[in-house]
Design brief:
With 65 residues, this protein is an all-alpha fold. The protein is 75% helix and 0% strand.
Length: 65
């Protein structure tokens, strides 16, 4: 729906959750990089300006029909 996958650590099992939490706790550089990528993704896809623009485009297309 957003054109690209968000930069997150997917966890499907208890073991995945444990592994990802340990990785985040132990690797500060990885944690910082993932945090930066996550914030950039949010600002690109979900910032107030982006969301407002999407809603305005929907409203405009509804009016024009």
């Amino acid at each position: 729906a957003f054109g690209e996958e968000p930069p997150i650590l997917n966890s499907y099992t208890d073991e995945d959750i444990l592994f990802n939490l340990i990785k985040l706790a132990k690797d500060i550089d990885f944690r910082k990089e993932l945090g930066k990528k996550s914030r950039d993704w949010i600002m690109k896809t979900h910032s107030p300006n982006v969301v407002a623009k999407i809603h305005l485009e929907i409203l405009k297309s509804s009016i024009e029909k």
